[in-house]
Automatic annotation (TrEMBL):
Gene3D superfamilies: Creatinase/methionine aminopeptidase superfamily, Creatinase/prolidase N-terminal domain. Residues 192-211 are annotated as: Disordered. Residues 146-348 form the Peptidase M24 domain. It comes from the Bacteria. This is Aminopeptidase P family protein.
Amino acid sequence: MSEVYAARRKRLKERCSAGGSASALISRPANVRYLAGAAPQGAVLLLGADEDLLVCTGPPDDRPHEGRPDEALKVQVLSHSGGDPVVSAAGLLTDRGGDSLAVEEHHLTVARHRALRSVAPRLRLADLGGAVEQLRVVKDEEEISCLRIGAEIADQALGELLESILVGRTERHLALELERRLVDHGADGPAFVTSVGTGPNSGRRGHRPTDRRVEEGDFLSVCLGATYRGYRCEIGRTFVIGTSPADWQIELYDLVFAAQRAGREALVPGAAYRDVDRAARQALDSAGYAEGLPVLTGHGVGLEIEEDPQLGPAAMGKLEACVPVTVEPGVHLPGRGGVRIDDTLVVRPEADGGPELLTITTKELLAL
């Protein structure tokens, strides 16, 4: 992997050089990990013309799920506790005669920016913007393999839960059990807070589990994700508890399923982000559910659970091959509940079989 990290850093330095900066300071943790192989607590990455340096407050952790720093990187551990790696890196650069530095202004706080200025007042600063995030959009096959394994873990955890007795158990209890099963099957941990919604809570995007108990006839919506070697995926499914679905439940489920399928089928290289959103949203709009729909139909995943691209009505840009995204339309009816169906897929050209579905738990409306 050392060559992979070195190639990523080289691409970024070329962009910095083209913008007039000889060095770059990376502080956003996911970006540090992408370029360095690991992101110890508070660490920053200083990219220079001659040498790249990982500046840490303490020795990097050697646990595999935390990542391991690229062996080609020099690691600088601060000699005193409480020091700020951002400030230390700026000081090191000026000591070496550096005169320009690109920083991630969207991540640095005002206080850190001022502190950096105070130790390097003559350093010419530029905004790196989202340059690293843009590099992260297209994944290599090693990254996709990590997402694929994470999806398998999430599928397995969800499948085991569906085989257990659910009636009478609380949303909170089910969510905790799912997160335990993720770790049992090899995940670093959950990719985000697991959402379990029953009855009137079902179908709500980002619903935090409560002490409401599962009842016969409820919709049960579940959204969970696994983190594996730093990479995060997600899956969402909706079921009916203990009985045959009511007519309104079947109708709503079929509608959301059709919208989700349309979104999945639109995932082809060259498709505009907004067109993927439109494909999924159109079926729900035409059925009268335009109000209250999620802002986004989906988003990219990787070292963070919500990355670029954003699949929304105003999103600019087009999909490329090897970009992993979610497609997650849903409808929630206040007081009744709702449906959410969520998959993680990788954009692939038709010659390679079209979009690769990573989360494979059935989307059939099951009565549990």
